[in-house]
Design a protein that fits this description.
heterodimer, A: 25 residues, 0% strand, B: 213 residues, mainly alpha, two-stranded antiparallel ribbon, globular, disordered N terminus
Amino acid sequence: KPVSMNAFELISRSQSFNLENLFGK
Amino acid sequence: GCCDFHKNKHHKKLRYGFRELSQLARESQFTVNEVEALYELFKKLSSSIIDDGLIHKEELQLALFKSPHSENLFLDRVFYLFDEKKNGVIEFDEFVHALNVFHPYAPTEDKIDFAFRLYDLRQTGFIEREEVKQMVIAILLESDMNLSDDLLEAIIDKTFADADADNDGKINKEEWKDFVLRHPNLLKNMTLPYLKDITTVFPSFVFNTEVEE
C-alpha cells in the first residue's frame, strides 16, 4: 500500500515541514 | 518625532518604523497592520534565546520543534532559504519575504519555486534521487516508521517514473512544475492559512500600531 504513495507526499506531510508551529499553536 | 524616540528607547531592535513597515506591505501580500502583527511574532521569536532582534537558527528550531538542539535536515533548508543575505541570521524583512510565499494568496509559481529550492538539498538546480531518499529516510526516522529498503526504493522509483520526464535520474525545475501541477496536494505545506488572520493571532500589534486600517 505505501508504494502507492509518492515520496514527495510523505515529505510534504511531515511534521518537520510544517511551519505552523511558528505561530506557537 | 515619535520614531526617534522609539529608536533611542529600543536601540537597534526597533529599526522598523512606519516607512519600512509600509514598504514591506507594498512588496508583499500583507497589509501594514498584518506586517505589524508579523513584527510582534518576529519580536517573540527573535528574543527567545538571544534578545537581539534577529532570528538565529536555534531560535527557529526552538519555535518549530520546541527544542533548540536536535539536528534537522529541513530546519537547515528552511533557515537557509529564509536567510536571503546568507549572513547566518534572519532579519525582519527576510522573515516577511519568506512568509509571503506561504500566504494563501501568494502566486502558486512562488510556492512551486520555494518547494523546489527546499528539496534541492545540495543546490545543484535539480532534485536528485539521492536527495529524495535522504529526505524520506529523515522523515521515517523522526516518525519511527519502519520501511524496508526495497519498499523505499520502490516508492522512489514510482515517484521518479512520474516526475522525471526525461528519465535522467533527477528532477529539473520544469519537470517539478509539471509534476506539482498534476499533484497540487504536494503544495499544501507551502500555505499557512494562519497568515490570513495574523492580526487576530497577534492582536497585541494594536498597542504598537502606527496606522489604523
